[in-house]
Specification:
Belongs to the class-V pyridoxal-phosphate-dependent aminotransferase family. This is Small subunit of soluble hydrogenase. One of its GO terms (biological process) is glycine biosynthetic process, by transamination of glyoxylate. InterPro entries: Aminotrans_V_dom, Aminotrans_V_PyrdxlP_BS, PyrdxlP-dep_Trfase, PyrdxlP-dep_Trfase_major, PyrdxlP-dep_Trfase_small, SP_NH2Trfase/AEP_transaminase. Helix 7 links the parallel strand 8 and strand 9. The strands form 4 sheets. A 7-stranded mixed beta sheet has the order 2-10-9-8-5-3-4, with helices on both faces. The radius of gyration is 21 Å and the shape is globular. The chain is α/β, with parallel strands linked by helices. It is built from 14 helices and 14 strands. It folds into 2 domains: about 240 residues, Aspartate Aminotransferase, domain 2; about 120 residues, Aspartate Aminotransferase, domain 1 (Alpha-Beta Complex).
Length: about 375
């Protein structure tokens, strides 16, 4: 049977039917009054999701493009920055900063472990001359399934008094609470293909007033990603360049679905889905890559020792049409990752857990049939 694929990777994620239908309508002129109304609606929805009254700018870009915009608009060549690295995407932001001739100092943790907020405190407290211009953090490290303690790290940044906090929230926005205003986050970047429940193609950057002040002296070159242009045109519900109009239709619909569900319910659903997967993995006596207390609600990384991770992925795809992600870089072939963010929920988790149990049994991993599914059901029944 064809057309039965179930995509459970950390992005792109599943797209609701009504969002696909919204995206399928005829395009409209991006300089029309109709588009201005559409943009006004999605901007208000984005502010709701980011929990901010400030700017949330929309770019035609991936999450990496949004992060690049979040760096080049607020920093200058030679600026000293701290970058948290405990996975592939922390390392990517380090490479990005180096490409723009920033003075990068990394704060690291082993892949699969969270960053230690005290390491940031030590560096920031020692900076009596206030030479550190920014701290750059990956909130949910997609490559390992770790969520870093952004709130604690940000408290140390705020105590410093001068440095900006620049956040990669590509996998966390829409999966866990990222209260931009309450935490005083300066720059928060994300992408459409994760918790937003729409296809790839849009990047988002939330910007604080502190960051806008810093932008006045920033000297890194920019044109397409000049956020000042997006802010100016966004105030008139338009864009400086041609946007992917049909993705805006999709975004409006997905935000309406999210608002109908409610932020607390969305975050609880993601925690419940993560808990179901973690309980099943524990019942099968398979190791998780990271501690449960540091696990992201968006993705679970499993590090099997009795069977090959790639054999699990291959058989899962061949027999059940279910795609889960593999490991990246140093974890290639060593882990598989189950995405449970966006439109993926309890139904999809029960499906992948049942299928995985079958695959593990076929591959010879010792388990009791029904143990993983039973553990997941108990989590489902125990949470509201």
């Amino acid at each position: 049977m064809t057309d039965r694929s179930l995509l459970l990777i950390p992005g792109p994620t599943l797209v609701p039917e009504s969002v696909l239908q919204a995206m399928a309508q005829h395009p409209i002129g991006h300089r029309s009054g109709e588009f201005s109304t559409l943009m006004g609606e999605v901007t208000a929805g984005l502010q709701w999701l980011h929990q901010t009254t400030g700017d949330v700018l929309i770019l035609t870009a991936s999450g990496t493009g949004a992060m690049e915009a979040g760096i080049i608009n607020f920093l200058s060549p030679g600026d000293r920055v701290l970058c948290g690295c405990n996975g592939k995407f922390g390392e990517r932001w380090t490479e990005l900063c180096q490409a723009f001739q920033l003075q990068v100092e990394t704060i690291t943790a082993p892949w699969g472990q969270p960053l230690n907020p005290n390491d940031f405190a030590t560096k920031l407290t020692a900076d009596r001359d206030k030479t550190i211009k920014a701290v750059i953090i990956t909130h949910s490290e997609t490559s390992t399934g770790v969520i870093n303690d952004l709130e604690a790290i940000n408290r140390h940044v705020k105590a410093h008094g001068q440095a900006l906090i620049i956040v990669d929230a590509v996998t966390s926005l829409g999966a866990t609470s990222v209260p931009v205003d309450d935490w005083g986050l300066d720059v928060v970047a994300s992408g459409s293909q994760k918790g937003y429940m729409i296809p790839p193609g849009l990047g988002f950057v939330a910007v604080s007033e502190r960051a806008w002040q810093a932008s006045k002296t920033a000297k890194l070159p920019k044109f397409y990603f000049d956020l000042g242009s997006y802010r100016k045109d966004g105030a008139k519900n338009t864009t400086p360049f041609t946007p992917p109009v049909n993705l805006f239709f999709a975004l409006r619909q997905s935000l309406q679905l999210m608002q109908k569900e409610g932020l607390p319910q969305i975050f609880t659903r993601h925690e419940r889905s993560a808990g179901m997967v973690q309980a099943a993995v524990s019942a099968w006596n398979l190791p998780l890559l990271c501690p449960v207390e540091s696990a992201s609600p968006a993705v679970t990384a499993v590090a099997p020792t009795t069977i090959a991770a790639e054999e699990v992925r291959s058989l899962l795809k061949k027999q059940f049409g279910i795609a889960v992600a593999g490991g990246q870089d140093q974890l290639k072939g060593k882990i598989f990752r189950i995405g449970h963010l966006g439109f993926a929920g309890e139904r999809e988790m029960l499906t992948v857990i049942a299928a995985l149990e079958s695959v593990l049994h076929q591959l010879g991993h010792p388990l009791t049939l029904g143990s993983g599914v039973g553990a997941a059901i108990r989590v489902l029944e125990a949470t509201p």
